[in-house]
Amino acid sequence: MTKFKAVMTFATVLGLAAPAFAEAPLNIGFIVPNPIGEVGWDYELDRGRREMQEHFGDKIIVTAVDSVGEGPDSTRVMNRIVAQGADVLFLGSFGHMNDGLALAKRRPDLAVLHAGGYLNEANFATYSPKHYEAAYLCGMAAGYATKNGQLGIVAAFPLPEVLGIMNAYVLGAKNANPEIKDAKVVWLNSWFDPARNRASAESLVAQGADVLFSLFPGTPAAVAAAEELGVYVTTTLSDNSEFAPSKHLCAGQVNFSAIYIDQVNKVLNGSFEGVDIFAGVAEGAVEVAGLSDDLSEDQRAAIFAKQEAIRSGEFKPFSGPIVDNTGNEVVAAGNQLDAGMIKGMNFLVEGIDSELPY
Amino acid sequence: MDTLVFVLAGAFATATPLLLAALGELVVEKSGVINLSVEGMMAVAAVIAFVITYTSGSHLLGFVGGALAAMLLSLIFAVLVLVFSANQVASGLAVGILGLGMSALLGRSYESFTLTAPAKITVPVLSNIPLVGPILFQQDLVVYLTIAASAGLIWFMQKSRNGLVLRVIGEDPHIAHNLGFRVLRTRFLAILFGGFMAGLAGAYAATVLTPVWSQGMIVGRGWIALALVVFGTWRVLRVVIGAYIFGALLLADLAVQSLDIGIPSQVMTSMPYLMTILVLALVSRDALRIKLNAPVALGENYRPAH
User: Fold this and answer.
1) Does B257 contact A at CB distance below 8 Å?
2) Would strands A276-279 and A124-129 be described as parallel, antiparallel, or unpaired?
3) Is residue A167 part of a domain?
4) How confident is the prediction for chain B on average, in pLDDT?
């Protein structure tokens, strides 16, 4: 017992002494679930990491590992990175949450930043961008661009975050063009299946959609299909212009480095906390990108003006009155959804021709 | 109407990779060998075909390269089970995992690149027939060739002498050997044919059906092809029908969702699997006939005694 205490005391002394050696670079571990690719989730996480490294230079050293799937493999990689001396750990997949939490509890000196989860610890923060803000702006672009008023949406899973993005998109489209028809939706029920993704785009176009929205599909297959089929496409996460050079209408671009740089600064100055980070246009974490030249000057100006209104806080996409697609008023006039309600979104707004399975 | 055409016309293209791989596996299994590496062979063929087509611009070269790559994997499998008499299930799984790993490695620097799909062939006059025209006469070349290959395989299995020899070997390799047939050579050729077809399937998936490379893009289609062989009770025509039903239902899922008929999307997404099982279970509810079609020696290695 005495020996144990002695070791503990020694460890505490070391711990207290650590800030004295603050010149040593901050050791950061960074894991993402899939190959990096050219666009999309993993690409954007990795781009955030690269920009963070450019920003901090030799103040940090980063060990980045990609294609770390959920499960035993991720546990092994996380533990190894931490055993090699990481002070900060970035986890890029929802499925890294439980293993990351266990690790954070075991290592209170470690700072963990987890993408897209819902649990926190004192040293375990969660971050998610307000994709819905950019989706509202891209919805406006879709409303302007549609000729027949028929929007089509290819979406991954009916999860709260996805519902929020879809709702904001349709609200934005209606703001730009009150005459549009109810948007048609195909749920992929998959994060990743290029063939289904492409077929969904074809299905929506066969039913008359002239603007598609590729919502978290995991691959640019639907975007490339839109170019071939000659319909406009709006996208999430990354500017997908290279896959649809003439038909890319708008992208809800995410900039993870805005969150990363802020948080690493907090770790460096000792103010890091395990909070829930929800960052949008105002924080520079989301913006519209890849706007089509086919939009008129006025239309582009209206979109950018709305983006500035979101940035200043003057406009919030989920402002009442909002009616869901079964006719219930969800948000009364003058009210707004708060962050918790946005994160727990469980309805589709009026103007979306789809039903939720619950 | 557009929706119906979309589902029925698209079913052919959607079913083609499943069907190509299933036809190859059917021949392998009829020779008494079960090769579970279809998924891995398709993945390797997909990445090789994609890279070749991407760099050379030729889809034909892509198909050739993809087929060769998958045949190379099937060669490893053939050596394991025919020369070393290794367990077929374990060898197939191992080679399949090797294939998936290799495809991820080889495709690393091509992640999420895209290609242009070859143009569809529009048959003059016939493609103008309402409804039938766009469904049957506006497909890509591979779809037509796959149908021709299915017909050829029906003839091979039922009418040709070599097909009969193949079936005998799958029933009882010892008797076949005593009759003077070369069991290992036939099985070797069957395994290579299986690799060739899985290669075409992978190449089609990555360069024609979805002309994009992404790691893991085969997403279980190799396993579905394996299941189709069993559900089709080792009969070519049933496998063909099963594959097309499956293809049509995969697309019907997407079409019905966007029509919003009120069926939850999860139910629709599971429909291809449920319906294919149901239809094929009904088609083959006669247990005796399944027994007659199933290769008796499936999965058993054969060592010539003398």
Assistant:
1) yes
2) parallel
3) yes
4) 90
